[in-house]
Structure formats: C-alpha cells, structure tokens
Amino acid sequence: MAFASHPADVSVIIPAYNCEATIRKAVSSALGQSIRAIELIVVDDGSRDRTPQIVKELARADDRIIPIVLPENVGVGAARNIALAKASGAWVAVLDADDWFRPDRLRTMLAAAERLDADLVCDNLRVFDHALGHVVGVTRFGARRSATPLTTRRAFELDQAFRRHNLGFTKPMVRAAFLKREGVAYDPRFRVGEDFLLLAEALLHGARAFILPSADYVYVHRIAPSTRTVAPNSRAGTGFADICRSCAYLLGKYWRGMSRLERRALARKRKSISDWLAYMELLAALRNKNFRRAISILKRRPTIPAIKIYTMRNRGLDLMMIGCARMQRRLAALGLTKRSVSD
Length: 343
Prior knowledge:
Number of helices: 11
Helix content: 40-55%
Largest sheet: 8 strands, mixed
Number of strands: 12
Oligomer: single chain
Shape: globular
Radius of gyration: 21 Å
Strand order of the largest sheet: 3-2-1-4-10-6-11-9
Number of domains: 2
C-alpha cells in the first residue's frame, strides 16, 4: 500500500457513474502523476454497475484514494461539490471518469500556476477518437509557446455552439483557497455545461486565470470525429436547454458587474446555443416530414439553415485533423519524426 506522507498539493476529483470499463485507467493516470503529493477523491454517483466495488478495491491498494459512495444519483455538479467539501489540497483538479491525465500534467500546471501567481489555470486537450482508439488532434485555445491570460470576455468567445472545440471542455486546476473565499462551487441545478459555468463564475469573481500551451488532458470526444458515433455513457447532444438557462443565469446574476463587451459576448454564446437548438428542431421536423413545423421554424429563424455551413466546415477540419494525425503516426513509426499527437 502507498502511504501519503505529506499534505496534498493537489486534490483530484473524479465523479463516477456507471463507468466500470474506464474508471481504472482514470484513477491510474491520476495516481501515476510525477508529483506524489496528491489525494484522489472518487465520488460514485449512485452507479448501478461495479464502479463502487472497483473504486473500493483500488482504495485498498493506495491510501491516497478517498472513495465516497452515494446511495443515489445526484448529478455531476452535486457529486463534485461533495468532493470539494472533502478536499484538503491547496489546488483542485477535476478528471472525468472516462478521460485521463498524461504523467506530467499536474506538475506542469502547478509550476505554471505558482510562477504566474494564478488562481486558475487551463491547459489544452488531446482529442481521443473512441472509434479509432487513439488521439487525433490537440486543441489550441491560447498561444502556442506561452501562457495566455484568460479574461471573462475571452472565455465567452471561446465557448460558442459552432466551434469545433469549446473552452468548456477543459478541466482547469483551481486554487482551493480562492473557491472557498469567493464561495464558488458547482451549481447542481445544471447537469450539463457545469464545467463552463464554474469557470465563468470564477472569472466573474475576479480569478487571475491563464491558458497554458501544454496539452496533457486526454479528452475522449463524446462524438467520434472520424465516424460521428457517440461514446458510451456520453451526454453529447443533450442539455442544450440547460446551457441556455445557465447563460441566462449568468446574465441575471452578474449583469451589473459585467462590462458591455462581456455582456455582448455572453449574449452571443446564448444565441449560438439557441440557434443550434432551433437547427436541430428543424432537422427533426424535416426527417419526420412535418413540413408545416419546418416552415414555422424557418419563419421565426430564417438564418439557421446557414448553420449547415458551419457543420460542413467543422466536419472537413475534423477529417483534415485525422489525416494529419495518421501521417504523423506513420512518420513516427518510420523514425522520421520524434513524436506524434498520440504520444
């Protein structure tokens, strides 16, 4: 058994629900970090499979794991809040149960956060295609070689419905003392989009935040870029109404504290989600040959067919990304390049 001999620098939080197939890899990636002073709080959110038994088994082998088993499902936000209340680390990092960390992620983020005197740091994502079984690309939310200051306005601009990769997919590392001082936590009323909502509220409370150039969080894309198939246990395509409500919540609660440009950026984000919902409603009407309904939607929102242009563009960029990743893998196998995005 591994014994924690020092206070935790970072509390890693994993909310887990029916993830018996992936939880071991997520836990292993957290425990395998190149910094040892971590605690790992795994909250089983009322799973009906073997997830709680697996977590308890792993906890017996390493006492850095703190298992919490909930009798019923309360939602990812509420589960994370339970873990936040238990966390003792100076920093808090969240990991989804079907994703994983690269070995130096927390060391890189911790060093950067302390150097920058930050309250919050994000990194980029390595996009894992579950249909192909490997990483196919890397996001680029900020500068390539240096930390980029993250403002509230920029955060809203980087999280629009028609972007291929949204900032809300990232999992920031946040200073625990900042969260406690400002009273920032996950809002359990919103079961989708909770990551971005916490990020937005932290920024609106004055967090000193940065986007790092590193990409050490492996994100299993909920919709495979290669085949457009949905990953198991994914919430992809659900909860857009929740995200619209969270935008309205932010506008209502923080209106007076926002600048005009911040309000405008958040309103654009909300409109992009609303337009996407109308577009999906239009497609459903056409599939069902409900032409009266389709005409009604087009009368209310005559510009939404243009969304097809964005979806075609994003699809083309995804295929280009996959092609580049395939070429890099081949060159790496031949010894003609040192690394590929899959490394």
